[in-house]
Amino acid sequence: MNEETVYVSGLGNDSKVPPEINKWNWGAFFLNWIWGIGNSTYIAFLMFVPLVNFIMLFVLGAKGSKWAWQKRTWRDVDHFKAVQKKWAISGLVLWGVIIPIMVFTIGGVFKGNDAYKLSLATVQNNQELIDIIGSPIEAGFFVTGSMQTSGPNGQAALKYAVEGPYGSADTYVFASKEIEKWVINQLVVHFPDTNKRIDIITP
Fold it and tell me: Residue 122 class from Cβ within 10 Å (0-12 exposed, 13-18 middle, 19+ buried)?
């Protein structure tokens, strides 16, 4: 009868890693440096190094289970699996719920901005665009881009989709704020499928 292998954790490179746990770690992938603190795997702090951080996401996913077993002392394999499962679930919650909420919140801020409202009204009344995609023209849910304000002045660069009964397009807005008033400096509607563009407002 073969002697049962004893898997030992928490001894660094001297640890014996169970083959069954040496697989992809979603908790390490999703939560990276946070997971690293909780699992005493401080190499995860390389996530703060530009360029290296993107690679580290996948390195942590691939090597995280092994490193966590080596760095911390676990009661047994079941204990390790249970804890790593919690990390994975937490990561999924963060990426699947909290981050989309943040995106929606940011999009809501953009939609409440006068630069967005002014650009949308201009797009909705553009006859050339109406002839192509029909009317009424509605804006998509997501608004991406950037916005910076300093006192009465500011700058905005926004992108959002618009659609009508016969088609859709992407809207690009560049606006500036001077003495509390937003002005559209450039407004372009682009059709990705045909690469056609309508320059509604040109700089």
Answer: middle
